[in-house]
């Protein structure tokens, strides 16, 4: 264990997702030896993210404005909504260039063991969007893992009573237990093209 600020930095870095104790230590010592201008740029970038990034009022994606660029884009198909867990999943699907509709970011997946139920996600907002707009298809693009499947199953039950609404799920091709952000564009593109009704 190191003294004072060094250990505090390691501890804080270790709280980041995907950063273990060894990685936190490596990053901390890299930062200690970094040029002050590099540290200033990092500080500024972190400050800008905290002060200037908001969640879109419509879909929940990250944005610099109250409404994100995808929701503002009149060329996007307003009748198709792709439901994803996190903003990073929007980027993964956008990279495929297969989907021309809009998105709805839930802000996570159902995980009762961690205390995440429907009320902690943006499910109510999704139902309000579908009830108030001319949406004809909802594509469920939750992660192909236990929590993602549970979320998709729950949403299917909630959406089945909307008249004229088709609910589809991404097709096979995505590995079970994986995350969308790690799928390559070809696999994710095929999964979008071959989506199926649920």
From TrEMBL:
This is Recombination protein RecR. It comes from Actinophytocola glycyrrhizae. Residues 79-175 form the Toprim domain. The lineage of its organism: Bacteria, Bacillati, Actinomycetota, Actinomycetes, Pseudonocardiales. May play a role in DNA repair. It seems to be involved in an RecBC-independent recombinational process of DNA repair. It may act with RecF and RecO. Keywords: DNA damage, DNA recombination, DNA repair, Metal-binding, Zinc, Zinc-finger. Coiled coil: none annotated. A zinc finger (C4-type) spans 56-71. It holds the Pfam family RecR_HhH. The keyword Zinc-finger applies. The gene is recR. Belongs to the RecR family.
């Amino acid at each position: 264990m190191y003294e004072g600020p060094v250990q505090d930095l390691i501890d804080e870095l270790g709280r980041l997702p995907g950063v273990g104790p060894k990685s936190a230590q490596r990053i901390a010592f890299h930062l200690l030896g970094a040029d002050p201008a590099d540290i200033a740029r990092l500080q500024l970038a972190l400050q800008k993210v905290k002060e200037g990034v908001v969640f879109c009022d419509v879909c929940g994606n990250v944005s610099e404005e109250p409404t994100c660029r995808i929701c503002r884009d009149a060329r996007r198909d307003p009748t198709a909504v792709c439901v994803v867990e996190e903003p990073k999943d929007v980027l993964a699907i956008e990279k495929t260039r297969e989907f021309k509709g809009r998105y709805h970011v839930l802000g996570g997946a159902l995980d009762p063991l961690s205390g995440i139920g429907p009320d902690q996600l943006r499910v109510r907002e999704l139902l309000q969007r579908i009830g108030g707009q001319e949406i004809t298809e909802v594509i469920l693009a939750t992660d192909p893992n236990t929590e993602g499947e549970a979320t998709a199953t729950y949403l299917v039950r909630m959406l089945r009573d909307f008249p004229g609404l088709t609910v589809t799920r991404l097709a096979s091709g995505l590995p079970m237990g994986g995350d969308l952000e790690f799928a390559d564009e070809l696999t994710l593109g095929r999964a979008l093209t071959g989506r199926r009704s649920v």
